[in-house]
Fold each of these.
Amino acid sequence: GAVVSQHPSRVICKSGTSVKIECRSLDFQATTMFWYRQFPKQSLMLMATSNEGSKATYEQGVEKDKFLINHASLTLSTLTVTSAHPEDSSFYICSALDPAHYEQYFGPGTRLTVT
Amino acid sequence: DQQVKQNSPSLSVQEGRISILNCDYTNSMFDYFLWYKKYPAEGPTFLISISSIKDKNEDGRFTVFLNKSAKHLSLHIVPSQPGDSAVYFCAASGTYKYIFGTGTRLKVLA
């Protein structure tokens, strides 16, 4: 299947700092990418839909000023958690929509820990 | 409001037997359903999918059944293997967005 990478795989940051997570589609161009977060023992919750060249669409309850999404190219979307707090600690997963097959391919996830 | 539900948080099955994981949904607009397998600290891995125009799809040891009238789908794994131990998520889609269930932790006992 198609490959989607995320970087970093793990990050620990101090409260109040910002963290950027990258999501790349490695073998197809993705005009649409998605960002999810998963709390322990819970489901994957869609945070936002990232559209190349336009503003992201956020799900209800997700603060767009806190979770900044940039999709500047067809293979890269970034999620920046601004002014991180311990409650932002979570597992963040991106996916990329393959337009040829209309399938989503998931990245390996990024574990964020805010101390 | 949980549109996709997996009511069994965990399931234990003996190796070689059948594992049946269940999923219920509420939105009749969903027309595409998927099952993913997930290990801790990894992204989900696609297993099998089914379109609403079908009621069964099979791929090797994995079979997904869809009952549209009951808004219910299930994943059958047979025979179950210890390597199948993981958390399984069902997902439903009406557009390109996926709505995930809460997951079922499957443990296959050797």
Note: Chain B touches chain A at residues 9, 36, 41-46, 89, 96-103 (CB under 8 Å).
Amino acid sequence: GAVVSQHPSRVICKSGTSVKIECRSLDFQATTMFWYRQFPKQSLMLMATSNEGSKATYEQGVEKDKFLINHASLTLSTLTVTSAHPEDSSFYICSAYRQGGMNTEAFFGQGTRLTVV
Amino acid sequence: GESVGLHLPTLSVQEGDNSIINCAYSNSASDYFIWYKQESGKGPQFIIDIRSNMDKRQGQRVTVLLNKTVKHLSLQIAATQPGDSAVYFCAENLQAGTALIFGKGTTLSVSS
């Protein structure tokens, strides 16, 4: 079963509104989670690194005031797209590492399809 | 900046054939490489990984080869099945615990 869960899986919103996407690690604690954005027929592009209890680290070109990240607990990170515009329509994916014995494996959420109309 | 890329955007094969998907990476400091499969509308699904101290690793029907000399990574899928149709991404990790950097993706189409 899924070890990283995203909610919602799909959302449609009007231009100018804000949308919150949740990313949860289901059976492990994640001090760090990662947010990616994927446009159609393109690869996953890292947007930011979400750090529990501290500010997120954003990649170059990603507006931190537009994409608000909150990592308030060890199992939950949220991405809020503020004042959404049609060009923000994309597939947003989160990931987290789970440590197990000698191995550390990255797990991905099922993604959130955001459509801004 | 350095990035992970793929040679071909699409690959079409017949069911039962072996598939080879290639990836070129440019950062010689990368320590860990992973292949992911992504079906439409879903998040990436782990297929197989390999560390930089290895040159080959086998899984069930899949093999990953790493050639550090030419910075090349490949994924071999044996006896390709229609269910293997998806987009395949290679990803690299520069340091444990940091974000994965993804290549451009290859769309694999398997016809019966």
Note: The radius of gyration of chain A is 14 Å.
